[in-house]
Design a protein that fits this description.
alpha/beta, Phosphorylase Kinase, domain 1, Rossmann fold, Dimethylsulfoxide Reductase, domain 2, seven-stranded mixed β-sheet, 26 helices, about 30% helix, binds ligand MGD, binds iron/sulfur cluster, binds molybdenum atom
Amino acid sequence: MLFGRKKKNPIRLPDKGVVEWRYTTCGYCSTGCSIEVGLDRNGRAVSSRGVGDADVNRGKLCIKGILEHELFDSAGRGRVPLMRERAHEPFREASWDEALDRTASEIQRIQDVHGRDAFAIVSTGQIMTEEFYTLGKLARGVIGTNNYDGNTTLCMASAVSGYKRSFGSDGPPGCYEDFEHTHCLLAIGSNLPEQHPVIYWRMREAREKRGFPLIVVDPRVTMLAQNADMHLPIRPGTDVVLLNALAHVILDEGLQDQAYIDAHTEGFEAFRDLVERYDPRSAAKTCGIDEDSIRNVARLYAGAPAAMTIWTMGINQSTHGSDGVVAINNLNLITGNIGKPGAAPLSITGQSNAMGTREWSSASGLPGYRALEKEADRREVAGFWGIDPEFFPKKRGLFMTDILPAIETGQIKGLWLIATNPMTSMPNTARIRRTLAKLDFLVVQDAYADVETNEYSHVYLPAALWAEKQGCFTNTERRVNLVRNVMPPHGDSRPDFWIFNQMAKRFERDRKPPFPETTEQAFEEMKQLSKGRLLDISGMSYDRIERERGLQWPCPEGAQRGAQRLYADGVFQHPGGRAKLIPLPFEDNNERPDADYPFWLNSGRVVEHFHTRTRTGKIGNQNKFSPTPYMEMNPDAAAELGIEHGSYARLVSRRGDAIVRVQCTQRVPRDMVFVPFHYHECVNRVSLGLLDPHSRQPAYKQCAVRVEPVADQRAAAEMNLAARAY
Ligand SMILES: Nc1nc2c(c(=O)[nH]1)N[C@H]1C(S)=C(S)[C@@H](COP(=O)(O)OP(=O)(O)OC[C@H]3O[C@@H](n4cnc5c(=O)[nH]c(N)nc54)[C@H](O)[C@@H]3O)O[C@H]1N2
Ligand SMILES: Nc1nc2c(c(=O)[nH]1)N[C@H]1C(S)=C(S)[C@@H](COP(=O)(O)OP(=O)(O)OC[C@H]3O[C@@H](n4cnc5c(=O)[nH]c(N)nc54)[C@H](O)[C@@H]3O)O[C@H]1N2
Ligand code: SF4
Ligand SMILES: [Mo]
């Protein structure tokens, strides 16, 4: 027998024959890694590598980025526009003119008969900022529907709403470099190593150098929790109670930064009166974290020279999502942990351009963080676009999660879906099916023709993907980075930007905004509109962005670099410049486990897959890690029900059921199962998704289910295979 490495062949990396590397930015998560795609002699994309001098990733990429060049000709891509009279009939191929003419005339017909708002538009966090800006101009300035929103309502709406309530504006105030200065990191409901692997690597490297404490709040023992100094396995949906209790201890023991509170906040008295009621002993009964741990974390956080909090969907996707964000902001305000190195309430965003849509899409307002509710903002944008300000509605319309129910009630008759797949990603699939089937007209604009939602469409518009086009993404730390055009669009697919421009041409209006021909010209317009605002980008240009591997906003004209942090001067965006301390009474309104449905259903993601797998499901080296729907289940709970590791089980809720493979693991407590949401006809058949009252974001992470063993394993395997789709 041979041992050791001596007799082993050295590892050889196959020569892919790259003759040229092209700069671009990763199109998956919001980390915002700079990538170079390698082209071979025949112009084929054959390799991807991280860009060494990019501050974000410093040469690193995760599994998704490394294999991203394989997307260009992956299975299921749309090549040509498709049309049909009725959903489910076979599609026929159409020319772009036919498909766009039909879509424009259906929009006009529906608006003429049922009113302007009867046609809705739902977009995404995954197209470029210039495309968002152009879509916003089309939706707000030409088509004129107020029922226009994005899938960010499933994702970031709670963070946006919480930032606005506390600080008067959206915008994550910190940056990745804060890890290098912090003395205490609280991570709530975020599985950083799997969902933002390169941010995790930045954090981990900083922690190895300086050894600051990491406290993780998550009901699962995630990869991040395994690395933590303290893991607080919170009872689902009760983070607000824990955060109120932390504030209670801080105020009770006089650990707050009173000078900061006095100088920069308002509402302290009402806040103090409320948290008075959340002493650790009673809070422990609700949130499941023992009172001493609560006290220890409070002292650690308040005692650190600089402390920061990061969070993701464990907070946002809850019936108290917006309150959870405000509670995190409260904690940072009372300890003076904002606007200085190592101190921030930093929402880790999700999709590659979740920020771009918040800033520029006009989905919840008007471009550049302007509001429909403000007359001055309406006038300014209307003036800039050359249209009548009266064309704009005076308050925002329905959120995505209210648009679909409005189809049920007949208020909305037509829908345009852009880069989002609600058939798989929205809660309660059966209801979404019925809803989409009810539409008079559905147009789906997606890079993949096999996206599940296309089942119900009348027109399908094939979109170019990621580096088949050019434009910007904004990442979690407000860094604008450039997606350079690396490859021509697949088949006859077209950039979303082109599609929006063509659509605009098909609407007659007395006064119409200009629609520039290139994304770079659109970027110039955005620069104009950004001047003097919080998100000032007037000092940026495509070339400068590429040269500096991304620039953070604000970056006004003449600035040496983008600002790393917001609110360094302690001046906030509320009138008067003060941040608000907001009291947050907790009301328990979740569906909870009971005798019939004894398990909490938790859902989320795994590192190798992205969302509804239109992309990662097609990349063999990614899909092979988890090709079938499965759930994490505690081995003791499984044994009690006679369920074996690796067998198929039935997951049942009040909404429906799903067949999943059981993975026994101590990662989840006895009364919880966790299901990755990447698979069609899986967890969202059973999920509930109660809505947060402020943000209208669904509580994907909390509802009640039961688990049943399945006698016929062979039939279950077949059903499970059907859900795997690829
Ligand atoms: N590989 C990969 N990366 C991604 C994505 C992807 O699909 N795949 N998607 C991107 C997007 S759009 C997003 S939004 C992010 C999401 O990134 P994350 O939010 O980090 O990922 P999730 O797995 O959805 O949820 C995180 C954790 O929340 C925990 N949680 C559940 N309920 C509670 C609760 O009540 N309280 C607390 N404190 N925690 C709770 C879950 O147990 C889970 O471990 O990831 C981004 N990055
Ligand atoms: N149970 C459960 N459900 C969840 C979640 C959860 O944690 N649990 N998380 C929620 C969250 S945070 C999110 S963000 C949503 C995501 O939900 P979705 O947005 O519905 O999911 P995606 O698969 O990302 O859909 C994006 C679509 O855009 C297409 N696409 C990609 N690039 C382009 C492009 O450049 N142009 C066009 N036109 N199309 C493009 C892709 O092919 C894909 O079909 O899911 C939500 N659903
Ligand atoms: S961490 Fe995110 S941005 Fe970076 S390579 Fe992975 S998926 Fe892409
Ligand atoms: Mo998301």
